[in-house]
Amino acid sequence: MSEEMNSYNVSTIAEMTGGIILANFNKSSNVRETSYQSEAELERNLLENLISQGYERANFKSNEELYANLKIQIERLNNVSFSKPEWNRFLVEYLDSPNDGMVEKTRKIQEDCVYDFTFDDGHLKNLKIIDKKNIHNNFLQVVNQVNGEGNHHNRYDVTILINGLPLVHIELKKRGVNLHEAFNQIHRYSKESFNSENSLYKYVQIFVISNGTYTRYFANTTAHNKNNYEFTCEWADAKNKVIRDLEDFTKTFFEKRVILEVLTKYCVFDVNNTLLIMRPYQIAATERILWKIKSSYELKKAGRVEAGGFIWHTTGSGKTLTSFKTAKLATMLDYIDKVFFVVDRKDLDFQTMKEYQKFQPDSVNGSKDTKELKRCIEKDDNRIVVTTIQKLNEFVKKNPTHEIYDKHCVLIFDECHRSQFGEAQKNIRKTFKKYYQFGFTGTPIFPENSLKGDTTSGIFGAQLHSYVITDAIRDEKVLKFKVDYNNITPQFKDAEMETDNEKLKKLEKKMLLHPERISEITKHVLKVFDAKTRRNEFYDLKQRRLNGFNAMFAVQSVEAAKLYYEEFQKQQNCLPKEKRLKVATIYSFAANEEQSAIGEIVDENFEPSAMDFTAKEFLDKVINDYNECFKTNFSTNGNEFQNYYKDLSQKVKDKEVDLLIVVGMFLTGFDAPTLNTLFVDKNLRYHGLIQAFSRTNRILNKVKTFGNIVCFRNLEIATQDAIKTFGEANDINIILEKSYDEYINGFTDEETGKTFKGYIEICNEIVSKFPDPTEIVLEADKKEFAELFGELLKSENILRNFDEFEEFEKIISDRQMQDMKSVYVDIRESILNMKRGESAELEQIDFSDVEFQIDLLKTDEINLDYILALILEKSKENDDVESLKAEIRRVIRSSLGTRAKEALIMSFINNKRLSELKNTEDIIESFYSFAKKEKENKIISLVEEENLKEDSKRFIEKAISKGYVEYAGDELDRIIPPTSRRQGAREKKKESVLEKIRKIVEVFVGI
Q1: What distance in Å separates the CA atoms of residue 978 and residue 948, rounded to the nearest whole number?
Q2: Residues 479 and 707: beta-carbon distance below 8 Å
Q3: Following DSSP, what letter does each residue of 858-872 receive, concatenated?
Q4: Nearest Cα to 322, choosing from 362, 357, 366, 280?
Q5: pLDDT digit string (tens) for 67-88?
Q6: Taking the complete model, does pTM exceed 0.70, yes or no?
Q7: What is the C-alpha separation between 989 and 982, in angstroms, rounded?
Q8: H helices of 575-730, where?
Q9: Cβ contacts of residue 829 below 8 Å, gap of 6+?
């Protein structure tokens, strides 16, 4: 480890020799500069620091120079020499294959970094582009202000070259500028030049953004649900202390060994071609386990509890990724014979199975048949075995004397809280003689929530690393909870905390399952559902336009699930089909095992045949309803029930199910980011409560602000107890959201001391200062308005989650709000145009610290059908077409989604006799018919004008249906006509076509 790294360490690092995550970070003792620092000075300081850390300074500015340097570095790494024809052939065959996009380049770095190349004299050599086994063989250079050519000319701030390839890019802004500016600039470069033909920047794996004060990193990925600002990450030490300042970040993250290990060991390129980079706490946990295996092996402790340990990472923090990556890295230890990655059968959803199969073919089988598992264990080239705890237990029972038990085996339990005290765990631990056992959990069992004194540390060994819920909320990796307590039926409250099972069942029959109570709760859920799940608001996700989020309903028993399911059907019968919630339910037989921990959620298996006749009969009806709704064919027979579980799981994740009623299934380990609300009519305590609540708090986008919990039982004390146990230092205020009153009237944050304006104050201030925003002229006023309106959008986005807000009397009229939105978007567009124009240097007012809340603006976009209905309505009120057009323009311009359609809508008004249209259906049908012809004409014109190839019409139609043009792959390249590559003519042609297709997509998306 370098001297720079050692200067930050404390003595505890001794227990972690070789780790890249510091045990304890202390700021350097250097006195911080207090004078103004320009962006150029920030960049200069960064370059100096990197050079002092051993990076070679290079001065390449052009693509040609980058390619010339690349040849030198690849030759150096592989100890070869290319002739010019050989080098050109190596580029075309492998390194810069003409049809490669950034996905293919990423695959080369992550999975396919060695190529068998035949030189002109006939000899074959394995050529590396990065050395993953001996990372210090890689050569690091730093360049700045490289020119990028595409449909715009760009200059990139600072780039780190590894063996000549730009694998890390850093975008800087001066101190005080909003960090979103740097993030947005990287996305702009991705569209304008990073991915242009022959650009080596397609190879970038990691982006870093910094304004000096704050620094974050993120993966270069095409995944539309992973490239939001919310998925950027801060660097930290092993105690989760964040390292924000660029100087400190550079000395740690950019220490040569650290950045090389992050690139070669701690990235995951998944089955969906999404590049993920592990977060510091995930890396720290992985390093701790690998260190523990090594030290336990050397001290001959295998087969004892002290040879293992557990990782406490809160629910939603990515434990499965950490545990799986740890398992893969453990297979690389010479003295380890096998690594068992053990999951619960219910975790084997379709996505997870695909991921495991990619790493270890035929390694996953959810059934109890152990033949495949035995074959996998006995196969010499299988260093890892991915299996379920159920199947591993069956194997142990059927093969009591197998030779594997005497070999050095690592056992990694994903979500160990579910199985830690069961018979299966004991059998496995008793049978394996030289094991190193590790568990991952978001909710450990401590003495205070243990029923018999058994604890997680007693089974798995010492806690090796923690990242608790308060850490995750501070880092914005999970959301806070907003909890409502609804005492709808007060006469039942005395029964709620009853612990005697027999008495509880009797009370349930008598009171908790009373038809009136079920009816009232169902009525309340239907009443608040739209507000809680934001059902009338919109956002984009995975190329789909979604309205709001979805919810789960946790109930006490199978009988309760049955009654609620029927009541939802009954109360929704009178609603039109399109207004009804899609309600599903699932439950199964739960073995009557003794619980080991207070609040443990009883585990249901996949054996519906074990249920009593009434429960199974009703489950058959539920599945038939599901089949009818989704045109599927599942049942309770054999594997079909497990397939129903998997399909239902995916449909909840895809937000095709609105409300899922559950007893125990899906309340632990299930991850659906679109789910934001949990209704609770179930006794929850300790880890069961945190597990269930945590189904709602996954990060998704800016619209989803926290997890909504709606309780129909008195869980307030239980919630506080659980938070105290699994949080840190009684941090209830960190985990739970502020009240409605605080958001309306303002509050002071207890942790930071920062004062936040209330919604009323923001509304009054903006109305007072800008009564008519369309009249704002001065740039300074535009900036102040943009800042205030952004605050207003954020405040309103939070308040929409509160039932009380529906009764709030508006301070800003609908007409004023329309104008404000329109002006807000105009200001943003003028700034973007200014940045691209030559006059940007002359701009006197600096907008770089303003973050435009465009995602929040899109939530209540006015849709096309609404505008068409409005045209019909106004045309009947007014014969003056120009007056009508002016009013419709005002509405169109207040909505981002319809702005691009303005000319199309105006053309429709000019070309149609509106008086002949009788109702809304007429005008909608007439417009869509008109728009379809216009779309076809525009596509045909573009194809002819640009002489595009035969498949171009299908490509453009596909882009319109997706809502964006795919520029990362080779599809766009294939429709471009033959064009000379001299002086970048082909690239210019491609960018010109891309821009024209984008304009067509903007206009016709959704039509």
Answers
A1: 9
A2: yes
A3: GGGPPPHHHHHHHHH
A4: 280
A5: 999 999 999 999 999 999 999 9
A6: yes
A7: 12
A8: 613-630, 640-653, 686-693, 716-726
A9: none
Q: Please report whether residue 373 resides in a domain.
A: yes
Confirm if 644 and 626 have CB atoms less than 8 A apart.
yes
For 358, other C-beta atoms within 10 Å of its C-beta total 13
DSSP string, 722-761: HHHHHSSTT-HHHHBPPPHHHHHHEEE-TTT--EEE-HHH
Q: Is residue 205 part of a domain?
A: yes
Residue whose entry in the numeric block shows the structure tokens 């694998």: 167
Q: Are residues 524 and 658 in the same domain?
A: yes
Helix (H) or strand (E) holding 583: strand 583-586
Domain assignment of residue 788, yes or no: yes
d(CA 74, CA 61): 19
For residue 17, pLDDT beyond 80: no
pLDDT in tens, 884-930: 888 888 888 877 777 888 889 888 888 777 777 777 778 888 888 89
The rounded distance, in Å, linking the Cα atoms of 164 and 139 is 8
CA distance 794 to 525: 26
788: domain CATH number?
Answer: 1.20.58.2040
Give me the pLDDT at residue 593, please: 47
**First-to-last CA distance in the chain?**
59
Last residue of a domain, one of 839, 860, 881: 860
Q: How many helices (H) and strands (E) does the chain have?
A: 37, 28
Report yes or no: 409 and 339 within 8 Å, Cβ to Cβ.
Answer: yes
User: What pLDDT is recorded for position 839?
Assistant: 43
Q: What is the mean pLDDT of residues 551-568?
A: 94
* DSSP letter, residue 241: -
Q: Which domain holds residue 591?
A: 482-737
Distance (Å, rounded) from C-alpha 84 to C-alpha 90? Answer: 10
- Within a 13 Å sphere around the CA of 721, how many CA atoms are in the beta-carbon half? 15
